[in-house]
Amino acid sequence: MKRIAIIAAAGKGTRAGADKIWMDMGGKLMIERTLSAFLSCPEVDQVILVVAKERLKDAEALLSCARKPCLAVVGGDTRTQSVRLALLRAKQEAGEQAALVAVHDGARPYVTPALIKACFDTAEKTGSAVPVTPSVDSLRRKTETGSQAISREEVLCVQTPQCFTLSSLLGAFSHEEEASDEATLYEKYVAPVTLVEGDPKNRKITYLSDIYEQSEPRVGVGFDVHELRVGRPLVLGGVIIKHDKGVYGHSDADVPVHAIMDALLTAANLPDIGHLFPPDDPRYEGADSIKLLQQVAEKVKEVGWRPVNVSAEIMAEKPKLAPYLSQMERNVAQAIGISENRVKFAATTTETLGIVGEEKGIAAHAVALLAPRKD
Ligand code: CTP
Ligand code: MG
Q1: Is residue 22 helix, strand or coil?
Q2: DSSP, residue by residue, 183-216
Q3: Which end of the chain is more exposed for a tag (fewer CB within 10 A), N or C?
Q4: What is the secondary structure of 119-173 as a DSSP string?
Protein backbone atom coordinates (compact mmCIF):
# COMPACT_ATOMS: atom_id res chain seq x y z
CA MET A 1 0.00 0.00 0.00
CA LYS A 2 1.19 3.51 -0.77
CA ARG A 3 2.31 5.30 2.40
CA ILE A 4 1.55 9.02 2.55
CA ALA A 5 2.63 11.32 5.41
CA ILE A 6 0.68 14.47 6.25
CA ILE A 7 2.57 17.02 8.34
CA ALA A 8 0.19 19.53 9.93
CA ALA A 9 2.14 22.76 10.24
CA ALA A 10 -0.46 25.47 9.63
CA GLY A 11 -0.96 26.49 13.27
CA LYS A 12 -0.54 29.99 14.66
CA GLY A 13 1.59 29.06 17.68
CA THR A 14 -0.67 31.10 19.96
CA ARG A 15 0.70 29.63 23.19
CA ALA A 16 4.28 30.15 22.01
CA GLY A 17 3.45 33.70 20.94
CA ALA A 18 5.50 33.03 17.79
CA ASP A 19 5.45 31.24 14.44
CA LYS A 20 7.18 28.34 16.21
CA ILE A 21 7.16 25.94 13.26
CA TRP A 22 9.49 28.28 11.34
CA MET A 23 11.80 29.09 14.24
CA ASP A 24 15.40 28.04 14.59
CA MET A 25 16.01 25.11 16.94
CA GLY A 26 19.71 24.56 17.49
CA GLY A 27 20.71 25.45 13.93
CA LYS A 28 17.72 24.07 11.97
CA LEU A 29 14.14 25.25 11.58
CA MET A 30 11.64 23.19 13.57
CA ILE A 31 9.83 22.23 10.38
CA GLU A 32 13.10 21.14 8.73
CA ARG A 33 13.74 18.81 11.66
CA THR A 34 10.25 17.30 11.48
CA LEU A 35 10.37 16.96 7.72
CA SER A 36 13.78 15.31 7.67
CA ALA A 37 12.52 12.37 9.78
CA PHE A 38 9.88 11.65 7.11
CA LEU A 39 12.26 12.22 4.20
CA SER A 40 14.84 9.84 5.65
CA CYS A 41 12.27 7.13 6.43
CA PRO A 42 12.26 4.69 3.46
CA GLU A 43 8.71 3.57 4.33
CA VAL A 44 7.30 7.01 3.45
CA ASP A 45 6.39 7.28 -0.26
CA GLN A 46 5.07 10.85 -0.30
CA VAL A 47 4.86 13.86 2.04
CA ILE A 48 2.07 16.46 2.14
CA LEU A 49 3.09 19.49 4.15
CA VAL A 50 0.19 21.66 5.36
CA VAL A 51 1.14 25.27 6.04
CA ALA A 52 -0.42 28.69 6.54
CA LYS A 53 -1.12 30.59 3.30
CA GLU A 54 1.72 33.09 3.89
CA ARG A 55 4.19 30.21 4.28
CA LEU A 56 3.35 28.38 1.05
CA LYS A 57 6.39 29.73 -0.83
CA ASP A 58 8.72 28.89 2.09
CA ALA A 59 7.28 25.38 2.23
CA GLU A 60 7.71 24.87 -1.50
CA ALA A 61 11.31 26.05 -1.27
CA LEU A 62 11.93 23.64 1.61
CA LEU A 63 10.48 20.72 -0.34
CA SER A 64 12.23 21.55 -3.61
CA CYS A 65 15.37 19.58 -2.69
CA ALA A 66 13.53 16.52 -1.35
CA ARG A 67 14.34 13.26 -3.07
CA LYS A 68 10.82 11.83 -2.85
CA PRO A 69 7.47 13.24 -4.05
CA CYS A 70 6.46 16.08 -1.75
CA LEU A 71 3.92 18.86 -2.00
CA ALA A 72 2.69 21.77 0.09
CA VAL A 73 -0.96 22.68 0.67
CA VAL A 74 -2.60 25.57 2.50
CA GLY A 75 -4.28 24.61 5.78
CA GLY A 76 -7.45 25.79 7.52
CA ASP A 77 -8.39 27.65 10.67
CA THR A 78 -8.15 24.61 12.94
CA ARG A 79 -5.97 21.53 13.04
CA THR A 80 -8.93 19.33 12.01
CA GLN A 81 -9.62 21.56 9.01
CA SER A 82 -5.95 21.52 8.00
CA VAL A 83 -5.84 17.74 8.17
CA ARG A 84 -9.15 17.43 6.27
CA LEU A 85 -7.79 19.55 3.40
CA ALA A 86 -4.63 17.44 3.29
CA LEU A 87 -6.62 14.18 3.33
CA LEU A 88 -8.61 15.33 0.28
CA ARG A 89 -5.33 16.06 -1.47
CA ALA A 90 -3.95 12.69 -0.41
CA LYS A 91 -7.01 11.05 -2.01
CA GLN A 92 -6.24 12.81 -5.30
CA GLU A 93 -2.61 11.71 -5.08
CA ALA A 94 -3.50 8.08 -4.31
CA GLY A 95 -6.17 7.87 -7.02
CA GLU A 96 -7.65 4.37 -7.13
CA GLN A 97 -4.71 2.94 -5.21
CA ALA A 98 -5.25 1.82 -1.58
CA ALA A 99 -3.13 3.92 0.75
CA LEU A 100 -2.09 4.36 4.35
CA VAL A 101 -1.81 7.85 5.78
CA ALA A 102 0.24 9.04 8.76
CA VAL A 103 -0.82 12.39 10.25
CA HIS A 104 1.88 14.14 12.24
CA ASP A 105 2.15 17.45 14.10
CA GLY A 106 4.76 19.70 12.52
CA ALA A 107 5.42 20.81 16.10
CA ARG A 108 6.86 17.37 17.01
CA PRO A 109 10.38 17.66 15.58
CA TYR A 110 11.86 14.75 17.60
CA VAL A 111 9.90 12.08 15.76
CA THR A 112 12.15 9.29 14.49
CA PRO A 113 12.02 7.23 11.26
CA ALA A 114 11.73 4.15 13.55
CA LEU A 115 8.49 5.40 15.12
CA ILE A 116 7.09 6.37 11.71
CA LYS A 117 7.84 2.86 10.39
CA ALA A 118 6.33 1.19 13.48
CA CYS A 119 3.10 3.16 13.05
CA PHE A 120 2.78 2.41 9.35
CA ASP A 121 3.53 -1.31 9.90
CA THR A 122 0.88 -1.62 12.62
CA ALA A 123 -1.73 0.28 10.60
CA GLU A 124 -1.06 -1.99 7.62
CA LYS A 125 -2.06 -4.96 9.81
CA THR A 126 -4.89 -3.50 11.91
CA GLY A 127 -6.11 -0.38 10.09
CA SER A 128 -4.85 2.05 12.71
CA ALA A 129 -1.84 2.93 14.87
CA VAL A 130 -1.71 5.57 17.58
CA PRO A 131 1.52 6.10 19.55
CA VAL A 132 1.08 6.59 23.30
CA THR A 133 3.33 7.01 26.34
CA PRO A 134 2.63 6.71 30.06
CA SER A 135 2.05 9.97 31.91
CA VAL A 136 5.07 11.12 33.89
CA ASP A 137 2.96 13.59 35.87
CA SER A 138 0.40 12.82 38.53
CA LEU A 139 -3.04 13.73 37.28
CA ARG A 140 -6.25 15.28 38.56
CA ARG A 141 -9.68 15.62 37.05
CA LYS A 142 -11.55 18.92 37.37
CA THR A 143 -14.83 18.56 39.25
CA GLU A 144 -17.63 21.02 39.99
CA THR A 145 -16.31 21.52 43.50
CA GLY A 146 -12.58 21.49 42.73
CA SER A 147 -10.57 18.50 41.57
CA GLN A 148 -9.95 14.86 42.27
CA ALA A 149 -6.88 12.70 41.79
CA ILE A 150 -6.93 10.04 39.09
CA SER A 151 -4.56 7.12 38.88
CA ARG A 152 -1.69 7.64 36.49
CA GLU A 153 -2.03 4.00 35.45
CA GLU A 154 -5.45 4.75 33.95
CA VAL A 155 -4.27 7.32 31.41
CA LEU A 156 -2.01 7.54 28.40
CA CYS A 157 -0.48 10.53 26.61
CA VAL A 158 -1.23 10.51 22.90
CA GLN A 159 1.33 11.43 20.27
CA THR A 160 1.59 11.56 16.51
CA PRO A 161 2.16 10.20 13.85
CA GLN A 162 -1.25 8.57 13.87
CA CYS A 163 -1.67 6.11 10.99
CA PHE A 164 -4.83 4.81 9.31
CA THR A 165 -6.04 3.52 5.99
CA LEU A 166 -6.72 6.63 3.94
CA SER A 167 -10.28 5.61 3.02
CA SER A 168 -11.36 5.02 6.62
CA LEU A 169 -9.82 8.25 7.91
CA LEU A 170 -11.50 10.17 5.08
CA GLY A 171 -14.76 8.59 6.23
CA ALA A 172 -14.18 9.75 9.81
CA PHE A 173 -13.30 13.26 8.60
CA SER A 174 -16.37 13.48 6.35
CA HIS A 175 -18.31 14.44 9.50
CA GLU A 176 -18.00 18.17 10.08
CA GLU A 177 -16.63 17.73 13.55
CA GLU A 178 -13.63 19.14 15.41
CA ALA A 179 -11.22 16.97 17.42
CA SER A 180 -7.73 17.44 18.80
CA ASP A 181 -6.45 14.36 16.97
CA GLU A 182 -7.35 11.76 14.33
CA ALA A 183 -7.84 8.92 16.83
CA THR A 184 -10.82 10.74 18.38
CA LEU A 185 -12.73 10.87 15.09
CA TYR A 186 -11.59 7.42 13.96
CA GLU A 187 -12.83 5.66 17.07
CA LYS A 188 -16.10 7.59 17.00
CA TYR A 189 -16.97 6.81 13.38
CA VAL A 190 -14.85 3.81 12.33
CA ALA A 191 -13.43 1.47 14.98
CA PRO A 192 -11.38 1.36 18.19
CA VAL A 193 -7.76 2.35 17.58
CA THR A 194 -4.66 0.17 17.90
CA LEU A 195 -2.08 1.60 20.29
CA VAL A 196 1.67 1.44 19.67
CA GLU A 197 4.48 2.34 22.03
CA GLY A 198 5.28 6.03 21.56
CA ASP A 199 8.60 7.71 22.22
CA PRO A 200 9.01 9.93 25.31
CA LYS A 201 11.39 12.11 23.28
CA ASN A 202 8.70 12.76 20.65
CA ARG A 203 7.18 15.61 22.62
CA LYS A 204 5.25 18.50 21.15
CA ILE A 205 6.80 21.95 21.15
CA THR A 206 4.13 24.18 22.64
CA TYR A 207 5.82 27.09 24.41
CA LEU A 208 8.70 29.32 23.38
CA SER A 209 10.78 27.94 26.26
CA ASP A 210 10.53 24.47 24.63
CA ILE A 211 12.44 25.96 21.69
CA TYR A 212 14.92 28.09 23.63
CA GLU A 213 16.18 25.20 25.69
CA GLN A 214 17.34 23.44 22.51
CA SER A 215 19.71 26.22 21.45
CA GLU A 216 23.44 26.04 22.09
CA PRO A 217 25.42 28.94 23.62
CA ARG A 218 26.84 31.57 21.29
CA VAL A 219 29.77 33.93 21.55
CA GLY A 220 30.23 37.37 19.97
CA VAL A 221 33.04 39.93 19.72
CA GLY A 222 32.95 43.70 19.41
CA PHE A 223 35.51 46.44 18.86
CA ASP A 224 35.38 50.24 18.89
CA VAL A 225 37.70 53.21 18.80
CA HIS A 226 36.94 56.92 19.28
CA GLU A 227 39.09 59.99 18.87
CA LEU A 228 40.23 61.98 21.93
CA ARG A 229 39.50 65.70 21.74
CA VAL A 230 39.84 68.62 24.10
CA GLY A 231 36.48 69.92 25.35
CA ARG A 232 34.68 66.54 25.29
CA PRO A 233 33.70 64.54 28.40
CA LEU A 234 35.48 61.22 28.91
CA VAL A 235 32.71 58.63 29.36
CA LEU A 236 33.85 55.03 29.66
CA GLY A 237 31.59 52.21 30.85
CA GLY A 238 29.01 54.82 31.89
CA VAL A 239 31.52 56.54 34.23
CA ILE A 240 32.44 60.20 33.66
CA ILE A 241 36.18 60.43 34.24
CA LYS A 242 38.09 63.65 34.89
CA HIS A 243 40.67 64.16 32.13
CA ASP A 244 41.97 66.96 29.93
CA LYS A 245 40.47 65.30 26.82
CA GLY A 246 37.30 63.33 26.11
CA VAL A 247 36.00 60.87 23.51
CA TYR A 248 34.57 62.39 20.35
CA GLY A 249 31.55 60.91 18.58
CA HIS A 250 27.87 61.33 17.74
CA SER A 251 26.64 59.74 20.98
CA ASP A 252 28.59 60.02 24.25
CA ALA A 253 31.15 57.82 22.41
CA ASP A 254 31.46 55.36 25.28
CA VAL A 255 34.02 53.08 23.62
CA PRO A 256 33.82 49.90 25.78
CA VAL A 257 30.02 50.02 25.89
CA HIS A 258 29.93 50.23 22.09
CA ALA A 259 32.24 47.22 21.86
CA ILE A 260 30.00 45.31 24.31
CA MET A 261 26.88 46.17 22.29
CA ASP A 262 28.44 44.75 19.13
CA ALA A 263 29.59 41.64 21.01
CA LEU A 264 26.03 41.01 22.23
CA LEU A 265 24.42 41.79 18.87
CA THR A 266 26.75 39.68 16.78
CA ALA A 267 26.44 36.75 19.21
CA ALA A 268 22.65 36.96 18.78
CA ASN A 269 23.02 37.14 14.99
CA LEU A 270 21.59 40.67 14.95
CA PRO A 271 22.83 43.65 12.89
CA ASP A 272 25.51 45.76 14.61
CA ILE A 273 25.08 49.11 16.41
CA GLY A 274 25.72 51.11 13.21
CA HIS A 275 22.45 49.64 11.85
CA LEU A 276 20.57 49.89 15.12
CA PHE A 277 21.62 53.42 16.09
CA PRO A 278 22.79 55.12 12.86
CA PRO A 279 25.39 57.86 13.52
CA ASP A 280 23.46 60.31 11.30
CA ASP A 281 20.21 59.86 13.28
CA PRO A 282 19.63 63.02 15.38
CA ARG A 283 17.93 60.90 18.08
CA TYR A 284 21.32 59.54 19.10
CA GLU A 285 23.17 62.83 19.35
CA GLY A 286 24.87 62.88 22.75
CA ALA A 287 22.99 59.64 23.63
CA ASP A 288 23.80 57.87 26.88
CA SER A 289 25.33 54.60 25.63
CA ILE A 290 24.32 52.74 28.79
CA LYS A 291 20.68 53.41 27.80
CA LEU A 292 21.42 52.13 24.29
CA LEU A 293 22.98 49.05 25.88
CA GLN A 294 19.70 48.42 27.73
CA GLN A 295 17.89 48.49 24.38
CA VAL A 296 20.42 46.06 22.92
CA ALA A 297 19.88 43.69 25.87
CA GLU A 298 16.11 43.83 25.20
CA LYS A 299 16.62 42.99 21.52
CA VAL A 300 18.87 40.07 22.40
CA LYS A 301 16.20 38.83 24.81
CA GLU A 302 13.46 39.19 22.19
CA VAL A 303 15.27 36.76 19.91
CA GLY A 304 15.65 34.17 22.66
CA TRP A 305 18.98 34.84 24.37
CA ARG A 306 20.31 35.90 27.77
CA PRO A 307 23.84 37.18 28.40
CA VAL A 308 25.97 34.81 30.48
CA ASN A 309 29.06 36.99 30.86
CA VAL A 310 30.80 39.93 29.28
CA SER A 311 34.51 40.61 29.19
CA ALA A 312 35.94 43.94 27.94
CA GLU A 313 39.36 45.50 27.66
CA ILE A 314 39.94 49.24 27.28
CA MET A 315 43.09 50.46 25.57
CA ALA A 316 44.05 53.95 26.77
CA GLU A 317 47.42 55.54 27.42
CA LYS A 318 45.98 57.97 29.96
CA PRO A 319 44.33 58.40 32.44
CA LYS A 320 44.81 55.41 34.76
CA LEU A 321 41.50 53.56 34.60
CA ALA A 322 41.90 51.00 37.40
CA PRO A 323 39.97 53.06 40.00
CA TYR A 324 36.90 53.23 37.74
CA LEU A 325 36.66 49.66 36.46
CA SER A 326 34.36 48.24 39.15
CA GLN A 327 31.85 51.05 38.64
CA MET A 328 31.90 50.35 34.89
CA GLU A 329 31.24 46.66 35.61
CA ARG A 330 28.29 47.59 37.82
CA ASN A 331 26.84 49.93 35.16
CA VAL A 332 27.07 47.32 32.41
CA ALA A 333 25.77 44.48 34.60
CA GLN A 334 22.75 46.55 35.59
CA ALA A 335 22.02 47.58 32.00
CA ILE A 336 21.98 44.02 30.70
CA GLY A 337 20.37 42.48 33.77
CA ILE A 338 23.08 40.12 35.01
CA SER A 339 25.02 39.99 38.26
CA GLU A 340 28.16 42.11 38.65
CA ASN A 341 30.48 39.13 38.91
CA ARG A 342 29.60 38.25 35.30
CA VAL A 343 31.01 41.47 33.86
CA LYS A 344 34.75 42.09 33.93
CA PHE A 345 36.72 45.04 32.62
CA ALA A 346 40.47 45.22 32.07
CA ALA A 347 42.54 48.21 30.98
CA THR A 348 45.87 48.44 29.23
CA THR A 349 48.14 51.01 27.59
CA THR A 350 49.80 50.31 24.26
CA GLU A 351 53.23 51.36 25.55
CA THR A 352 53.10 54.76 23.74
CA LEU A 353 52.64 52.97 20.37
CA GLY A 354 49.98 53.73 17.75
CA ILE A 355 46.85 55.86 18.02
CA VAL A 356 46.22 54.80 21.59
CA GLY A 357 49.85 55.23 22.68
CA GLU A 358 50.01 58.67 21.07
CA GLU A 359 46.80 59.61 22.96
CA LYS A 360 44.90 60.27 19.74
CA GLY A 361 42.14 57.86 20.69
CA ILE A 362 40.78 55.23 23.04
CA ALA A 363 39.90 51.71 21.87
CA ALA A 364 38.13 48.75 23.42
CA HIS A 365 37.26 45.22 22.54
CA ALA A 366 34.73 42.93 24.17
CA VAL A 367 33.50 39.37 24.16
CA ALA A 368 30.00 38.31 25.19
CA LEU A 369 28.62 34.84 25.78
CA LEU A 370 24.90 34.21 25.29
CA ALA A 371 22.82 31.24 26.41
CA PRO A 372 19.23 30.36 25.48
CA ARG A 373 16.65 32.12 27.62
CA LYS A 374 15.13 30.02 30.34
CA ASP A 375 11.83 31.88 30.76
N1 CTP B 1 -2.05 23.04 13.11
C2 CTP B 1 -2.43 23.12 11.78
N3 CTP B 1 -3.47 23.95 11.41
C4 CTP B 1 -4.13 24.67 12.34
C5 CTP B 1 -3.77 24.58 13.71
C6 CTP B 1 -2.72 23.74 14.06
O7 CTP B 1 -1.83 22.47 10.92
N8 CTP B 1 -5.10 25.49 11.93
C9 CTP B 1 -0.89 22.20 13.47
C10 CTP B 1 0.19 23.01 14.19
O11 CTP B 1 1.04 23.66 13.23
C12 CTP B 1 0.89 21.98 15.04
C13 CTP B 1 -0.24 21.03 15.40
O14 CTP B 1 -1.25 21.21 14.40
O15 CTP B 1 1.90 21.29 14.35
C16 CTP B 1 -0.92 21.31 16.72
O17 CTP B 1 -0.03 21.69 17.75
P18 CTP B 1 -0.25 23.02 18.58
O19 CTP B 1 0.77 23.03 19.66
O20 CTP B 1 -1.68 23.19 18.98
O21 CTP B 1 0.15 24.14 17.50
P22 CTP B 1 -0.55 25.54 17.24
O23 CTP B 1 -1.99 25.34 16.94
O24 CTP B 1 0.27 26.24 16.21
O25 CTP B 1 -0.34 26.25 18.65
P26 CTP B 1 -1.46 26.97 19.56
O27 CTP B 1 -2.53 25.94 19.81
O28 CTP B 1 -0.71 27.39 20.78
O29 CTP B 1 -1.95 28.14 18.73
MG1 MG C 1 -3.31 24.45 18.46
Answers
A1: helix
A2: HHHHHHHT-PPPEEE--TT-----SHHHHHTTPP
A3: C
A4: HHHHHHHHSEEEEEEE-SS-EEEE-SSSEEEE-GGG-EEE-S-EEEEHHHHHHHH
pLDDT score recorded for residue 313: 98
Residue 232: CATH number of its domain: 3.30.1330.50
Q: Which atom of ligand 1 is nearest to the CA of 51?
A: 7
Quote the pLDDT of residue 302. 87
Q: CA-CA distance, 226 to 29, in Å (whole number)?
A: 40
Low-confidence ranges of the chain (pLDDT < 50): none
Q: Is the CB of 82 under 6 A from ligand 1?
A: yes
Residue 36 belongs to domain with CATH number? 3.90.550.10
Q: Measuring from atom 10 of ligand 1, which residue has the nearest CA?
A: 11
What separation in Å is there between the alpha carbon of 79 and the centre of ligand 2? 7
246 lines ligand 1 (CB under 6 A): no
Final residue in a domain of this structure, among 184, 212, 240: 212
Q: Structural domain of residue 92, as residue ranges?
A: 2-212
Residue 237 and residue 290 share a domain? yes
Which of 185, 212, 239 finishes a domain? 212
CB of residue 51 inside a 6 A radius of ligand 1:
no
